[in-house]
Amino acid sequence: MRRRIIVSFAAFTAAALAATASGYSIWRSLSEPPAEYKTLEVILNKLNDGNKLGKANLAFMITAGPAASELAWGRGLCRGNLETLYDQCVFFSLLNPFKTYKNGWAYSNGTILLPRSLFRKFNNNNPHLACIIAHELSHELRSHAFELNYYYNHNLKGLSEKDKEAASMKFQRQHELDADRDASIMVFRAGFKGRPCISAISEVFRLNGDGGNTEADSTHPGFNERMNAMKLNYIKLKKNPPSQVRSVKRVMYYSKPDNLLLFTHKKN
Ligand SMILES: [Zn+2]
User: Fold this and answer.
1) How many angstroms is it from 25 CA to the middle of ligand 1?
2) Do the domain assignments include residue 73?
C-alpha cells in the first residue's frame, strides 16, 4: 500500500529532547510516543543496523488506515471509489489515530504511512512487522512511484489507454515482487531468523480474506504468485547469503503534533 502526504517539520526542532536507546541517540519531542511508534523505532533501528537505507531522510506516519475510509464512505461522509479508497475518502485513512480532530490536514510526499491496525493485526510480532516495513522501504528506496510514472509517460507513449493500463499494472506487479525480495534480504540482514516474510505476507492475504489469483487489472500479484516468489527468494538467500553492509547511524525525531517519526542521519 502506498500513500503520499505532506507534513510540516517545523515542530521537530522546537521541543526536542535527547535520549538514548539501542545505542542510538534518539531525539524526540517532550511527548512520549504511542506504543506503536516505540515498536516502529525498535524495528527501524534493527533494519538500519544491517542495511544501507540510502541518503534520504525517512519519514513514517501511523495513520487511521483504510478502515477509517470505509467507515466514512459507509456513512456518506465522502465520495469516492471504495475499491481503491481514493478521491475524497482517502482523507479519512490519513487521519491521526492518536488525536481527536478539530482541524484539517495537509498533504505532501515521501512519507511511509502505516495503518495503526497493522500493529494490532500482527500482535506486535516484530519480524513480521519488519517485513511489511522493509517492503514499503524498498518502494521508497527504489523510487517505484517515479519509475512507474516515467515508464507510463515514456515507454508506453503511443499505446492505447487500455494497453497502457495493462502494461502499467504488470509493471507495478513486478515492483511488488521486487519489494518482497528486498524485504526478505533486509530482514535477514537485520538479524531476524527464519523465513518471517513468508508468514507475514501470507498473514496479510488471510487478514484481507484474499486468496485470489494474479489478475491482469491488479497492481498486486495474487497469493500463489507472491508466496512462490518469496519461497524462491529464501532458497536463493540460503544458497547465497547477502554480504554484510556497513550501516550508517541515524537519529529519530518524533513529533506528536505532526504524528510523524523522522529517521534521519546522525548529526555530529
Ligand atoms: Zn508494495
Assistant:
1) 30
2) yes
Which burial class, exposed, middle or buried, applies to 98 when counting CB atoms under 10 A from its CB (0-12, 13-18, 19+)?
A: middle
Per the domain annotation, does 23 fall within a domain? yes
- CA 95 to ligand 1 centroid distance, Å: 21
- Which of 80-89, 147-156, 169-178, 218-227 is predicted least confidently? 80-89
For the chain, the domain total comes to 1
Q: What's the maximum distance between 2 C-alpha atoms anywhere in the chain?
A: 56
Domain that holds residue 252: 10-265
Q: Is residue 108 part of a domain?
A: yes
- The Cα 32–Cα 35 span in angstroms is 9
Question: How many angstroms does the Cα of residue 144 sit away from the middle of ligand 1?
Answer: 9
pTM beyond 0.85: no
Tell whether the model's pLDDT for residue 182 goes beyond 80: yes
DSSP 15: T
Cβ(47)–Cβ(190) below 8 Å = yes
Q: Are 92 and 78 in contact (CB under 8 A)?
A: yes
Residues in the chain: 268
CA 175 to ligand 1 centroid distance, Å: 7
Assign 65 to helix, strand or coil.
Answer: coil
Extract the C-alpha cell encoding 210: 484474499
Q: 107 C-alpha to center of ligand 1: Å?
A: 21
Residue 4 lies in a domain: no
Q: Read off the pLDDT of residues 189-209 as tens digits, 9 standing for 90 and up.
A: 999 999 999 999 999 899 888
74 alpha carbon – ligand 1 mean position (Å): 26
139: CA distance to ligand 1 center in Å?
7
